[in-house]
Amino acid sequence: MLTLIVPGLIWTRQALADLTYDLPLPAFTTLLGRGRLSHCPPGSTAATLAEICRLDAPLPAAALRRLALREHPGAEDFGEWLCLDPVRLRFEQRSLIVDDPQWLQLTSDEANALAVSLAPTFAEFGELEVMSPHAWNLRLSVAAPAFHDLPEAVGRSAALLPLDAPHAAWRHAISEAQMLLHAHPVNQAREAAGQPVVNSLWPWGGGRLPEIDHSAATSLHDALWSNDPVAHGIARLLQIDGASLPAGFAGTASRKPLAVHHALEHPARTGDATIWREQLTRLEADWLVPALDALRSGRLDALRLLAPGDLATAELQVSRHDMWKFWRKPRALSELVPR
């Protein structure tokens, strides 16, 4: 079985019809016609991944990605961790937009220099650790309140921190960090070179690694493919294969992969219809065409496609036996959105 999570697929019903009316998507429309489509309440990628992997939500992203990025996990991995990622906040049409930390393209030297300067500001909360240039963790020495997940904020207008009392000390620390970043030599050099600057930090994804009873645990999947280190941490926690998302599907009946396909997510959030259509065409050619062929040949016994979104979560289930139901006609992609 192949389970494919595709965030960014859901728009409004009319927008989805307008965006796809002239796109040749024979595999997708055939799968929609042959399979069983259902709708669930709105959801996030992380919540969908947690449900499939039988983990509690919200996921402890900091602890999970630390598990993935460290070569030799130790006892400290089971402590309380919080993501504290470098970000650029920019104004766009009177809104504050959060950019993906990856777009900063920080070097390791730049990230380490920034972290050394910022560590004392957050010392009352814990110890700052640079996992990668774009992924920083805080090993917490105090309890932390809940924060907005960064992956759900990227590309959107979002408030950095709530204005309630539990977040007051964090708001103060973030404000101090923003002032330090404004005058930091790393940022000054980046600005002079025409590169985006780090102007804030984003706390999110706090918690501990969940305890897994591997003697009793069973997984529907034997591999987790994603470009997200949090997903790689889940794979390591569950003791299944974890790898980057392949260029396309070329599986056999012996594999049961869970794949997270993020390419549609950002253009959907920013309303970039051109890029979104290009990525949908690639999803069709690289994943759905070979999956349909594998269902027809019996090399794949089932496909489960989940599309979490702000309006709804669509779930499509197709088995190889559904390929015999030739009387079921193709369905338009607008059917992914409930009426």
Can you describe what's shown?
With 339 residues, the chain is an alpha/beta fold. The protein folds into 2 domains: 2-56 and 219-336, 3-Layer(aba) Sandwich (Alkaline Phosphatase, subunit A), CATH 3.40.720; 69-207, no CATH class. Helices cover 34% and strands 20% of the residues. It has helices at 13-20, 26-34, 45-52, 61-69, 108-118, 150-153, 168-183, 185-192, 229-238, 265-270, 273-297, and strands at 2-5, 36-40, 81-87, 89-92, 95-98, 126-132, 135-140, 200-207, 223-225, 241-243, 257-260, 302-307, 313-319. The strands form 3 sheets. It has a 7-stranded mixed beta sheet with strand order 2-13-12-1-11-9-10, with helices on both faces. A 4-stranded antiparallel beta sheet has the order 6-7-3-8, sandwiched between helices. A two-stranded antiparallel sheet has the order 4-5. Strand 9, helix 9 (229-238) and strand 10 (241-243) form a beta-alpha-beta unit. Helix 2 packs across helix 11 and helix 4 packs across helix 9 (229-238). It is globular, with a radius of gyration of 21 Å. The two termini are 29 Å apart.
Q: What is the radius of gyration?
A: 21 Å
Question: Uncertain regions: pLDDT < 50 for 5+ in a row?
Answer: none
What strand order characterises the main sheet?
2-13-12-1-11-9-10
Total domain count: 2
**CATH fold naming of the largest domain:** Alkaline Phosphatase, subunit A
The rounded distance between the terminal residues' Cα atoms is 29 Å
Mean pLDDT reading: 92
Q: Beta-sheet strand percentage?
A: 15-25%
Report the total helices.
11
Helix content: 25-40%
The biggest beta sheet is recorded as: 7 strands, mixed
Helix/strand order: EHHEHHEEEHEEHHHEEHEEHHEE
Looking at the overall shape, the CATH architecture of the largest domain is: 3-Layer(aba) Sandwich
Structural class of the secondary structure composition? alpha/beta
Taken from the alpha-carbon principal axes, the silhouette is globular
Write the CATH homologous superfamily of the largest domain: Alkaline Phosphatase, subunit A
CATH class of the largest domain: Alpha Beta
How many DSSP-defined strands?
13
